[in-house]
Amino acid sequence: MKREAENWEHYERMIARLMADQIDTSLCVTPNARVIGKISGRSRQIDVLIDARHETDDSRRIIVDAKRRKRKIDVTDVEAFRGMMDDVGATHGYLVCPTGYTAAAEKRAQMSVTICLIPLDHIKNFNPSTWPVCLNPGCERGRIFWDGYPELSMVLQPITAETNSSPIVKRFVHHVGKCDRCSRFHVQCNTCGDILSTPEDDESDVGHQCSCRMPWFWLASVEEGEDSAKSAELHCCQLRGVVTVDRRPYRR
């Protein structure tokens, strides 16, 4: 039973990785997400959730259901999936499986649902167990899923007698993402290699800096959108302002 669960998770994480590598950078990906249904009022588990990255706006929400099984997707599967889309406010959905789908399922999918066939070994040597371990002390077996790569820069004026010397721009690339189990935000600095864990519900948290000690820090918070839905957001705080670099639904 444990082995079967691991196979399911492996396929879901592979689909999440494929989505994150292909979508627009203005969108962010959350594996194993939880969303409170607008109709049902209960927590819905979503294999892969795609939302706007920089703003509290779920009008472009996309959900993905990765069905790792031997039988084809049928019309019942599509109808159940469309019901989930309505409940969580998704504008489009992807049903992903390795085996195929029936003609009736294809007709029922229409414009709002895309059915994709992705073999189990689509990504060779894919192994989510090699991802960094979640730094949340209360999380068991969680791994960090990177889905964003913000680049921050500093402009340095060279110390020289020449008046026309060009300024020097130093760039610092980071990875941002979430744990695939508890969804805790994490940031990795590619310069020093530090990985930071940023809880969104700690009111005493004053921010996190890596060993580089650059003039910015990372802080997570809970925000409320126009539809009263709460989302957890990861922010990069700089002298020039605050930028939201990652988002996900808030887990109570």
Summarize the model shown.
The chain is α+β, with helices and mostly antiparallel strands.
Protein model, in words:
This protein is an alpha+beta fold and 252 residues long. Helix content is 17%, strand content 38%. The protein is built from three helices and 13 strands. The chain has helices at 2-22, 75-88, 103-109; strands at 27-36, 43-52, 62-66, 92-97, 113-117, 144-148, 151-156, 168-179, 185-189, 195-198, 216-224, 230-238, 241-249. Strands 1-2-3-4-5 form a five-stranded mixed sheet, sandwiched between helices. Strands 6, 7, 8, 9 and 10 form a five-stranded antiparallel sheet that branches. A hairpin with a 5-residue loop joins strand 8 and strand 9 (185-189). The longest helix is centred in the N-terminal third of the chain and has 21 residues, at 2-22. The protein is elongated, with a radius of gyration of 20 Å.
Features:
alpha+beta; 252 residues; five-stranded antiparallel beta sheet; 38% strand; elongated; five-stranded mixed beta sheet; 17% helix
